[in-house]
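Run folding on both entries below.
>entry_1
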Amino acid sequence: MTAKERRRLQRLHAYERQAWDAGARLLCGVDEVGRGPLAGPVVACAVVIREPLYLEGLNDSKVLPAVRREALCDAIRAQAVAYALGWATPGEIDRMNILTASKLAMGRALSSLAVTPDYVLVDAVHIPECACPQEPITDGDAKSAAIAAASIIAKVFRDRWMDQCDALYPGYGFAQHKGYATAEHLAALARLGPSPIHRRTYAPVQAPSFDFLLDGAAL
């Protein structure tokens, strides 16, 4: 690991160091992935650590290539004291809106942990009914090592779930776009209609015709 990368990772642990210095022992990072897609669940992860994660390349999952995310996911799981996943289904997203469903998924991840953390760092939002002290951090997945770790595990597991859905619901291209509103996905929606895992309250899924979104792409 280069000296520059080590310095970056030290900066990425600023919130963690503050919590540890204040007396926390088990620190938890929480993040979710999948707010934007037209299909599939929103998936949250809670990762508990007791020491820094000096893993080369650790960062917000959105800026990492898939191969690097997979390798980091394995390394994080090996070093973490505990981790747990929480999901909110497409139906729950439709019933309660994506923000509330995201918080629900985060709460489910926290409640599924095998240990109780002393302090929780969470990306952007306040988690209702969280029994631990928590600190929401705007853009936390880019500023906190623990939150970045949670975002990586959540992203890897959600992507794997969407890969399985590609076989269950062929023709939509879920393995390629993971449910996001690509031109390929919109064309498949126009051709096939929504699948059981589509979010029916999202405007592109509701649209009777997708021509205006496809910029003239052939169906």
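>entry_2
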Amino acid sequence: MNKVEYSGTIDVEEKERILKMLETDKEFRYALMGLLGYREVLERITVLEERFSKLEERFANLEERVIKLEERIIKLEERFSKLEERFVELAERVTRLEERVLRVEEELRDLSKAINVIAHRFGILTDEGFREAMRYVVEEVLGVAKVSRWIYYDSRGIVYQRPSIVEVDLVIRDGEHILLEVKSRVDKGDLLELYRIGKLYEEVNKLKPKLVMLGAFFTKDVNELAKELEIELRPMVKTYG
């Protein structure tokens, strides 16, 4: 085979032939590009384009999902806002109902007190029943949570001039002992009885109690005697007769 020597230059005819082969001969073109290192670059570009195309598709899918999530969030926020409004309305209704219940309870207590006072005045209710009915009033007047009962056998008859059992309401508040008698109608005899019970309590327990008379009605002549005997009068109803 004759060896073609390359003189370092290509004549015009040869150039035209090579350019025409590049335009018409695909294999020749790729072979030449491979020799020049372009084939590998093109393949990598093709792979990158395919990957980029797939990434674009995934990104588009993600955008759709984000849009749907945003729509769901907006709907949830609207529902939550409506629930908050309903909760506020219910809370206001509950508050109004509580206020109404409190007013009704106060009215019932006032009515119950008035009924008990009237019932005792006309002989329908005994002093013992009146005392039990008005126990909550006692606790409110003295500001205490509990009223107990002091019971003692008076063997020497200090209170009733003969041996007998003595009973009185007792409140111990901040170290102070308070003897309390609850009557629907208070007269001098009631004050003297409480005074003698106080003396008996002082003798038995070695301390002087405070004496308090709580009543619905007081006779006109009890105020002066109450001061002399150091008995505090606490009216439940400001009516005298």
